[in-house]
């Protein structure tokens, strides 16, 4: 799949933007703060319904405006598609495919992209919530129906937590215990599916991340990842979950996920009632990243962490392209090459060369290998520079 045209209205610093794109590499060049990342962020939003830079949609709307609109013309195997989303300051967002209304959460069915940016170091170094979000976004791109499962789980979790808080304040009554058991059933049903899908995804990423890391670094540092599950007793609140916790979880997985989930809820019942909070389930899980059999978080250097995060995104793109009927995901590299030495720049250029379309941002043209600069778009102060004279003036 490729993006042939991107149109923005009142998005970030763009009143209006129109950008034509081509198959292969597309390079957006401009000084920091000019708006080049805003272009690729908008495309990332179309496939993940979120920004890699901010947690709320309001920041994406141009100051003083009520809504921002992202429109992308997509093409695959001669078929054209128009994907649109309207991000509203108040009220629900709206989405369309070929001018027909759809639910925003259905957009990943039509467009898939994988974006790597410096902010993705937070996936490795940050809280478990960032790693869960990464896995869930990839799950939805890989299996779009899971968007509904994840949404239903979140609603069920909120209802169950509300009941637990009520029981903590008033003391558990007989009718509340019966209601809690009903919510337990729904939580286990939805949560078990999410856990199984995440575990399968982690396993599917194992070989692609090894291949991606070797392609970028040129060496084998044993990159690995493994699921850490709260239903198996792993404490994801700990600062650095141990590898022994991961091994213990693997041994427990001989039992059915739903059975283990239900047993964990029973074990935590008293603590949950005391705290008014659901203490086990996919919302409390994590994933462990390792290099040379040591956790990347806390042990790896900045360069190793950067390379692991980049390999994680390249592995994600490879996984999506293998299971897709609509071609490769659009691969987006936001301000990546400035962090790499000449050798790794060349290796990365070779690694992404096989994708149908790659979008790259850079502050300095010379940071990007020449083979990726054939189609270059210059950006300045929220404007697409159309002529050589405009580019010269900046």
Automatic annotation (TrEMBL):
<keyword id="KW-0067">ATP-binding</keyword>
<feature type="binding site">
    <location>
        <begin position="30"/>
        <end position="37"/>
    </location>
    <ligand>
        <name>ATP</name>
    </ligand>
</feature>
<keyword id="KW-0234">DNA repair</keyword>
<comment type="similarity">
    <text>Belongs to the RecF family.</text>
</comment>
<dbReference type="Pfam" id="PF02463">
    <property type="entry name" value="SMC_N"/>
</dbReference>
<dbReference type="GO" id="GO:0006260">
    <property type="term" value="P:DNA replication"/>
</dbReference>
<dbReference type="GO" id="GO:0006302">
    <property type="term" value="P:double-strand break repair"/>
</dbReference>
<keyword id="KW-0235">DNA replication</keyword>
<protein>
    <recommendedName>
        <fullName>DNA replication and repair protein RecF</fullName>
    </recommendedName>
</protein>
<dbReference type="InterPro" id="IPR003395">
    <property type="entry name" value="RecF/RecN/SMC_N"/>
</dbReference>
<dbReference type="InterPro" id="IPR042174">
    <property type="entry name" value="RecF_2"/>
</dbReference>
<keyword id="KW-0963">Cytoplasm</keyword>
<dbReference type="GO" id="GO:0000731">
    <property type="term" value="P:DNA synthesis involved in DNA repair"/>
</dbReference>
<keyword id="KW-0547">Nucleotide-binding</keyword>
<keyword id="KW-0238">DNA-binding</keyword>
<feature type="domain" description="RecF/RecN/SMC N-terminal">
    <location>
        <begin position="3"/>
        <end position="362"/>
    </location>
</feature>
<dbReference type="GO" id="GO:0003697">
    <property type="term" value="F:single-stranded DNA binding"/>
</dbReference>
<dbReference type="InterPro" id="IPR018078">
    <property type="entry name" value="DNA-binding_RecF_CS"/>
</dbReference>
<dbReference type="InterPro" id="IPR027417">
    <property type="entry name" value="P-loop_NTPase"/>
</dbReference>
<dbReference type="GO" id="GO:0005524">
    <property type="term" value="F:ATP binding"/>
</dbReference>
<comment type="function">
    <text>The RecF protein is involved in DNA metabolism; it is required for DNA replication and normal SOS inducibility. RecF binds preferentially to single-stranded, linear DNA. It also seems to bind ATP.</text>
</comment>
<keyword id="KW-0742">SOS response</keyword>
<dbReference type="GO" id="GO:0005737">
    <property type="term" value="C:cytoplasm"/>
</dbReference>
<keyword id="KW-0227">DNA damage</keyword>
<dbReference type="InterPro" id="IPR001238">
    <property type="entry name" value="DNA-binding_RecF"/>
</dbReference>
<dbReference type="GO" id="GO:0009432">
    <property type="term" value="P:SOS response"/>
</dbReference>
